[in-house]
Amino acid sequence: MTEGLRARARLAMRTEIAETAFALFVERGFEQTTVDEIAEAAGLSRRSFFRYFPTKEDTVFGLLYDLGEELAAAVAARPASEPPWTALRTACAVLLAPMLHRTDEAMALLRLINETPSLRARHQDKQDRWRKLLTDALQARSVSALKADVLASTALAVFDVVCRHWLAAGPTVEPNKLMDEAFAVLAPTRDSA
């Protein structure tokens, strides 16, 4: 089996376990669902579960960590002449795609994170990782370290606000519209590196 095929098979299995876990969390609650129950529902042993996810929380956030890498790659792919704040807003389409295509699941995930203290703490860890990835992507565009950190941190905070408002308003509100409005609130008058 080639390395690429192994990686795809591992990702497919991680995705399957994460989706199984998520369904159980929605049905029973995060705290009420055990690793043993997730493993059993996924057709795995407890030991096999831990080969794919180090913790139960990672079944919620493990795949989202990869989304941060996609976001940073989307920023890096923006035209060099594009102002950094504009590049961040445009790249956020990567974050909005799951919300647009899997609305019910996205809302259930946001509710789960907001209602579970251990997941809120892990959310902060994820945000820190995403911030570092975005800061690096902005610095590669010749944005100073301080400005890159401020812009990346602010963009992620704006995304959190959008998620809260979208969850409160319901699925009839378009996340893209909320994102545009939220980014516009902080649009620099001079958007340069």
SSE topology:
Blueprint: H1 3-28, H2 35-42, H3 46-52, H4 57-77, H5 84-91, H6 93-101, H7 103-115, H8 117-139, H9 145-169, H10 175-185
Helix pairs in contact: 1-2, 1-4, 4-5, 4-8, 5-9, 6-7, 7-8, 8-9, 9-10
List keywords for this structure.
single chain, 193 residues, mainly alpha, Tetracycline Repressor, domain 2, 0% strand
Short overview:
With 193 residues, the protein is an all-alpha fold. It has two domains: 1-53, Homeodomain-like (Arc Repressor Mutant, subunit A), CATH 1.10.10; 56-185, Tetracycline Repressor, domain 2, CATH 1.10.357.10. Helices cover 78% and strands 0% of the residues.
What report would you give on this structure?
There is one protein chain. The chain is an all-alpha fold. The chain folds into 2 domains: 1-53, Homeodomain-like (Arc Repressor Mutant, subunit A); 56-185, Tetracycline Repressor, domain 2 (Orthogonal Bundle). 78% of the residues lie in helices and 0% in strands. It is built from 10 helices and no strands. The protein has helices spanning 3-28, 35-42, 46-52, 57-77, 84-91, 93-101, 103-115, 117-139, 145-169, 175-185. Helix 1 (3-28) crosses helix 2 and helix 7 packs across helix 8 (117-139). The radius of gyration is 18 Å and the shape is globular. The model has no long low-confidence stretch (mean pLDDT 91).
